[in-house]
Write a structure and sequence with these properties.
By secondary structure, this protein is an alpha/beta fold. The protein has helices spanning 2-26, 44-58, 76-85, 100-106, 144-159, 181-197, 214-226, 241-250, 261-265, 270-273, 284-297, 321-326, 329-343, 376-379; strands spanning 29-35, 62-68, 91-95, 114-118, 137-142, 171-176, 202-207, 231-235, 253-257, 276-282, 305-308, 315-317. The strands form two sheets. A six-stranded parallel β-sheet has the order 2-1-3-4-5-11, with helices on both faces. The model is unreliable at 1-25 (pLDDT under 50).
């Protein structure tokens, strides 16, 4: 009898907890999205805003206020602290890796807030940085190396095609905003993908040293096209807009980043958009919506980080009408097969985010790539 009473009490408590959780999910929720830059980059920050918009569309009880801190780093920490201290938010969403130290250091000062960070993880295991282990911080990172690996496969395979704008040989390029780990994680994956297609692939790499200098991006990309590159992958934020200008001017091709950049400019500049044959998307919008959905149902792993790759929909190529029109079926088949192989664990993608002995380095060359039994010709239908 005693046992039955205990079970009954526990069941009632569980139902009560569930009802409280459900009611809480229905209460008005205020979110502040803090951007250390400006909207209109047609890339990373715009993707975050789309995620915020999707949250409001799907959860009518949610209001999202977006704060643009601008491009001057001197304003970022103060702006973030002002947003947290305002006291009008339940969740504070913060990007990017340049903000993670500020969040890690201040999160314990605002225990009533839940922080979402995207593109970098809090220093959970470092008590000197994360007081209380950043227990109110949920971090989203992206396996940009996986998505860029597929982009490299695609670029190299397209560089083998006989079509206007494609030269002899397999030469592609990548323009990075800065020589930093997260950008290099894109590039090592990209290089590995190209080498999977052919050990003769040549990948030109250069860093612009800026995220907001389209003229510099155009200059670098034009030089790569002059060296025979058929396709240049931009991983440089606003600087990458210059890569698209160069592709249109040179009659060559480009790959965008973070968002489906061709679709964004298709109406305003269709000629330039036609040269962006795909984009390697960090699906910030999907990840923020996913994170909020988990929070609303009470299953968000707050106090830890999640890395989202191809399997989780965190990264992937843009399969828009330009991609569909330009890409031969054999290359489409290869892209699908490669993605499946990565998800299945049949291909391990290089990364810089591992121990020093195993970390990949930009410019290692195809001879240094890990061996794989993946059959590119078979995946392309025997080409």
């Amino acid at each position: 009898m005693f046992h039955k009473k205990v079970v009954l009490v526990m069941a009632l408590l569980a139902l009560l907890a569930l009802s409280v959780s459900f009611v809480g999910a229905q209460d008005d929720v205020n979110i502040t999205l803090v951007i250390n830059g400006v909207l209109g980059d047609k890339s990373f920050f715009d993707s975050a805003q789309r995620g915020a918009d999707q949250i409001m569309d799907e959860f009518p009880n949610v209001t999202v206020n977006t704060i643009e801190l601008g491009i001057d780093p001197a304003n970022w920490e103060t702006g973030l602290r002002d947003a947290a201290a305002a006291g009008d938010a339940d969740i504070l969403i913060v990007g990017t890796f340049q903000m993670i130290d500020f969040v890690s250091a201040m999160a314990h000062e605002y225990p009533e807030l839940v922080f979402f960070t995207f593109d970098a993880a809090a220093a959970y295991d470092n008590p000197e940085v994360c007081v209380d282990g950043c227990s109110n911080v949920y971090s989203i990172t992206y396996k940009q190396n996986e998505g860029s690996f597929v982009a490299g496969v695609y670029a190299a395979a397209m560089s083998m095609q006989e079509m206007e704008g494609i030269n002899e040989g397999i030469t592609i390029g990548a323009v990075g905003g800065q020589d930093i780990p997260v950008i290099n994680d894109f590039i090592v994956g990209y290089e590995q993908g190209a080498c999977l297609v052919s050990p003769d692939s040549q990948v030109l790499v250069q860093y612009a040293g800026s995220w907001n200098d389209p003229a510099r991006g155009k200059e670098i990309a034009l030089a790569m096209y002059d060296q025979g590159a058929d396709i240049v992958f931009q991983v440089a934020g606003g600087t990458g807009e210059g890569v698209f200008e160069a592709a249109a001017e040179a009659g060559a091709f480009a790959i965008g980043v973070d968002s489906d950049q061709a679709s964004i400019i298709q109406e305003t500049d269709p000629d330039q958009a036609a040269r962006i044959i795909t984009s390697m998307m960090k699906n910030v919008d999907n990840s923020l919506f996913r994170g909020y959905s988990l929070w609303a149902e009470g299953t968000l792993p707050i106090g830890s980080a999640e890395a989202l790759g191809i399997a989780e929909g965190g990264v992937g190529l843009a399969y828009n009408e330009i991609y569909e029109e330009v890409t031969p079926d054999a290359v489409k088949n290869l892209v699908t097969a490669v993605q499946d192989a990565v998800v299945a664990g049949e291909i391990t993608v290089n990364t810089v985010f591992t121990d020093e002995a195993s970390a990949a380095k930009v410019g290692q060359g195809c001879a240094a790539m890990p061996a794989t039994e993946f059959d590119v010709a078979a995946a392309m239908g025997g080409m």
